[in-house]
Amino acid sequence: MPSTSSRTVVVATTLLGLLIALPLIGLSASLFAPGAGASWSHLAETGLPGYARSSAVLALFVAMGAAIVGAGTAWLTAAYRFPGSRLWSWALVLPLAVPSYVIAYAYTDLLQFAGPVQSWIRATWDLRAREYWFPDIRSLGGAAVVFTLVLAPYVYLPVRAAFAEMPASLGEAARLAGVRPLLAFLKVELPLAWPALAAGLALVVMETLADFGAVSYFAVDTFTVGIYKAWLGLGDRTAAAQLALVLLGFVVVLVVIERVVRGARRFSVRGTTAPRRVRPLRGWHAWAATMVCALPVALGFVLPVVVLAQLAWRDVEAHAWSRFAAMVGASLQVSIAAAVITVGVALALTYAVRLTRSPWLNGISGFAAFGYAVPGAVLAIGILIPLARFDNVLATALELHFGVNPGLLLTGSVAALLYAYVVRFLAVGLNNVQSGFARITPHMDEAARSLGCGPWSLLRRVHVPLLARSLAVAALLVFVDALKELPATLALRPFNFDTLATQAYNFAKDERLGEAALPSLVIVAVALLPVLLTTRALASRRT
Fold first, then answer.
1. CB-based burial of residue 316 (10 Å sphere; 0-12 exposed, 13-18 middle, 19+ buried)?
2. pLDDT in tens, 370-392
3. What is the model's pTM?
């Protein structure tokens, strides 16, 4: 018989998970909307195959690129010392601070026909149009490169933490067996880091599938572009919701595969082990490692920021400086609140699953995380429908019984926006918290219970200290994602509530890149502090 505390945990966690999943349930209800069958038939005959093909190819290329860049640089910075290794250990996270659509605009300005690169090529070799070939940045390949540069830190952060925590005995055993370092990485260390790698790649693929700004500007017809075309272009919200459900189907398959494979590779290190020793690299190996780590930083952060800075300086007189202080404050407040709430919800859900070992709660937790793959604007629809009904019912009841009409309490305030952020970015917190829990052996729980620790004491005194790094990484990722989030913010923000992201987008969509550059640069500057603090904590373990 389950205990009273276990039943309470199950009921409370179920209610919390259902609250997070409410917008997805609302989207699912679109299947029964009038005319849903006709909309689906039209989609299946026209754009659906192309959307599926483009999304799958783009996600595959980005996942491969992020795995190579993220895992490779994580291994180099965690296992070796070379020129600039301490610098690269934190600098490799900097692309997280730059929105993908802003990088897309920056590289388009740099590499388009009238941009400085092609202009220099034509002037240097006296060429004219169509007399030379130059790759088109506004293509599926260009989008894959941009997403790889932006999303590789999602792999780098958890994988580097996993490599840094591996005991020295693994490397010593490999060297005694005569295994070369690269082969030891492929055969021993990378398989052991699989839980962290799988979690990072899952985030990369979901972020790629959910993006709209970059793919729409590059004219790549993914699911999200189709959703926005159906919703904004054709005014068919039912078709847009149905496309979102197909996208969720892809994510369901992805998450199931990732959890099955990650569960099969779960491991924990028993006993007290010495931390891994960082080995120095010399000669051309050292400089090759430096170049490998410097290239993602240069292409994913330094070069776009330089382009944006030049654009901002060129149009410096057009900026309304008095508005930026308010936008910075609003962006900081809502992003910090979203990070704290989201990580708290992720910790509660994950700990409840670990405590009860309930398949039901595991399913609730997994379903609640699918909001990460839903485009922000479509998620906003799923949130507005139930919240608007709740606001109307509450206002009617208060006016009837107390003669007071409070207006729109949720949909007219920041509460709806925070709700969207938690639903949208819960997968970020869940993947990092679950990865952290996977490295804590169950024997620690048993030992703590034998000493009289109850469930909450176990969480506070044992798990939270061991999860500090994973919680910090999760909070950082949610904070930066909330700072950059655009579609849901545009739809759900209260009147006169502007963030840096919305301001940058409003200028960028009108091709006013010089004016869009300044709020984009402020986003980068605000995101730098938590990036530096978190990566410093990650590096301190091995220095």
1. exposed
2. 777 677 767 777 787 777 777 77
3. 0.77
